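Lecture notes, unit on binding sites. The following record was shown on slide 14. It pairs a sequence with glyoxylic acid.
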Amino acid sequence: MALVIVSRVHPSSDVWAPEMRRLMPEIDVRYWPDVGNPDEVDAVLMWQAPDGLFDRLPKLKAIFATGAGVDAILGDASVPKHLPLARLVDPSMTAEMSEYVTLQVLRFHRQEPTYAAQQRDRVWKVHPQPHPEQRRIGVMGLGELGQDALGKLAPFGFALGGWSRTPKALEGVETFSGSDGFARFLARTDILVNLLPLTAETENIIDARLLGQLPEGAFLVNCARGRHVVDDDLLAALDSGRLAGAALDVFREEPLPADHRFWSHPRVILTPHAAALTNPLTATPQIVENLRRVQAGQPLVNLVDRSRGY
Ligand code: NAP
Ligand code: GLV
């Protein structure tokens, strides 16, 4: 059983292989491009495929993604469609994402951008503070990350809502689904959190139409993908003040070009795609489980459904 790891980190300081060998001593781990005998390689672990990867590994049986979102892999024409693809569900990444969402929701809820601007101008002025039950949070995407974030927000007492493709019943959350429920979901959302996968259906979903359906003075937290957003539409909504603020972690082009208006917009808070990182220590058990499944000819855990795109 041989696995090839495609990593940006030099093998000598990479955490994946030692952790895999600890959990599965019989594993043969190799680092791209030193694949050894390619006929022995059963699986590859990667974020994106380097040029020539699949030509060099003809006997691959599975692809393991090092991330939760697999849009870059599914959008790559060089990736063979017949190979099963497993995405990552990493408990540490899930916890980090919920921290990020909670941070940004509380920041907007407690009017932190207003008070930060006042501090810069030495202004002493108290603003009425809405109670949490008056603040309606809406999470788009009720998967691993969306559900965990809602669970972490629940103790604050916010009015929680969520939207997904298929109907969901979640305790303490007003749920909506499909295109039928979308307008009602947006109309009741003061702070919109995007945790959708990037698919053909969700690309450009955060456009002028969506933003126009949110209540006046709403906020956006985008921690899913930059291509969910039509940048010009978002900037127009922020310029006019219709959208009171946006916390953005992901961008159409990463790194965000130095001349992009998001960098300096007074209503934007941004981070460099750092909301939730994969932790090899907590993610490796899933990889090892999937290697055993490949060996036994069983279906992978967290298998991506290519027809849905996530
Ligand atoms: P997931 O478990 O696959 O959940 C996806 C959710 O989105 C599901 O509830 C799904 O609905 C819903 N959905 C998909 N297509 C939809 C559509 N057309 N309309 C309405 N709802 C739709 O994904 P996850 O693990 O929570 O991850 C979500 C995304 O977060 C990833 O794809 C990735 O892009 C992003 N992410 C970002 C970072 C970062 O650092 N910024 C880190 C990790 C992940 P159903 O429940 O009905 O299937
Ligand atoms: C990060 O953005 C991921 O999808 O894991």
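Take-home: Residues 91-109 form the longest helix (19 residues).
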